[in-house]
Every structure is written in C-alpha cells, then in structure tokens.
C-alpha cells in the first residue's frame, strides 16, 4: 500500500538520501560520473531542502513507513522535482505522484504544468502526454547538463 501525503521537516534525511541514491544509481545511466557527483551533491544543501519542503506543495509516497518517492511544485505549476527510490522503480509510484501533483495544479487554477526533466525521465513523461518545448543545456558547478523543457495542458 502506497500512501501519498504532504512532506514535513522530519522527512528531510530520507528525502535527501533518496535524492542522492536515485541520481547515483538511476540517472547515472544517462550522465557522466562528474555530472552525477555534482548533481547528487545537491543533497547536502540542507537549508535549500528545508525551504523547499516548507514553502512549496511537497508530497512523499510512503510504504510501510519508508519514503519511496517524492515530488514538489514551485511557482504553483512548475514540477521542480520527481524522484522515486532506486529500489522501487517501475512500480507505478512515479505515476501516482504525478497524478496528485497534476490535481494540485488544476485545483490551484492553472491550465498548464511545466518542468525541466532529465534524459532519464523523458520516456516516463512522454507516456503521460507531456510535450517537449526544447532541449536545453543547464550549467551547474562547472558541469553542463542536457535536459528538456516540457509542458502539458491540463
Ligand atoms: C522518472 C521516474 C520518476 C519514474 O518513476 P517510476 O515510479 O519508475 O515510474 P512508473 O512505475 O510510475 O512508470 C509508469 C509508466 O511510465 C513509463 N516509464 C517509466 N519509466 C520509464 C522508462 N525508463 N522508460 C520508458 N518508459 C518508462 C512506463 O509506461 C511505465 O509503465 P510500465 O512500468 O507499466 O511500463 C523514476 O524513474 C526516477 O526517479 N528517475 C530518476 C529521477 C529523475 O530523473 N527524475 C525526473 C526529474 S529530473
């Protein structure tokens, strides 16, 4: 049984560990070792994660008291993060989180949801009818990441 609930600050260690492990084990199929190290190091910025949880619509998927995925919105309709635990991939958790996120966007009055997504996640979003606006290069701590600006009309 997967339960979706809003995150709170006590979830912080589990969320950042999941972020780091998913990037290291899953996104590593599509990005270089250096890119993965830089991206995963984002888990160390506790202050930023605290603000993300406190200020945004931030949800977690939980199974038997373990966080198996999370997603959050910024600016009302920007999906800024969607990560599923490395050991729980392809079990429908990402789809469940996305459904709840899209419902929240609709409920707050937006007609569109948008996101910047990794090469890894593109096939997933394609399956849920997201359109690619453009491919882009994102600069982070000396590394250049290729990702995609996507959107969907709700
Ligand atoms: C992208 C991600 C969130 C998807 O989560 P998930 O729980 O594994 O996805 P689901 O099990 O809900 O997948 C639902 C459907 O999407 C499609 N899908 C998911 N991953 C896919 C993949 N890698 N390739 C092709 N289709 C995929 C499939 O149709 C799948 O249904 P199926 O398993 O019955 O075939 C997850 O792979 C992840 O955490 N990726 C790394 C982090 C990341 O890049 N996040 C994106 C923000 S940058």
TrEMBL record:
UniProt keyword list: Transferase
Region forming the signal peptide: none
SUPFAM superfamilies xrefs: Acyl-CoA N-acyltransferases (Nat)
Coiled-coil regions listed: none
A Pfam entry, by short name: Acetyltransf_10
Xref: InterPro entries: Acyl_CoA_acyltransferase, GNAT_dom, N-acetyltrans/Recomb-assoc
Ranges where the N-acetyltransferase domain occurs: 2-154
One Gene Ontology molecular-function label: acyltransferase activity, transferring groups other than amino-acyl groups
Keyword Iron carried by entry: no
PANTHER family, per the entry: ACETYLTRANSFERASE, ACETYLTRANSFERASE (GNAT) FAMILY PROTEIN
Protein name, per record: Putative acetyltransferase
Source organism of the structure: Bizionia echini
């Amino acid at each position: 049984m997967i339960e979706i609930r809003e995150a709170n600050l006590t979830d912080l260690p589990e969320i950042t560990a999941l972020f780091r492990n998913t990037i290291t084990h899953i996104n590593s199929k599509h990005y270089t070792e250096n890119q993965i190290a830089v991206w995963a190091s984002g888990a160390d910025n506790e202050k930023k994660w605290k603000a993300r949880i406190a200020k945004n619509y931030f949800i977690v998927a939980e199974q038997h008291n373990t966080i198996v995925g999370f997603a959050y919105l910024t600016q009302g309709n920007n999906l800024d993060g969607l990560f599923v635990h490395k050991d729980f991939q392809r079990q429908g958790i990402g789809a469940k989180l996305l459904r709840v996120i899209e419902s929240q966007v609709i409920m707050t009055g937006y007609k569109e949801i948008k996101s910047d997504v990794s090469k890894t996640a593109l096939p997933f979003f394609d399956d849920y009818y997201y359109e690619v606006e453009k491919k882009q290069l994102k600069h982070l701590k000396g590394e250049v990441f290729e990702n995609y600006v996507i959107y969907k009309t709700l």
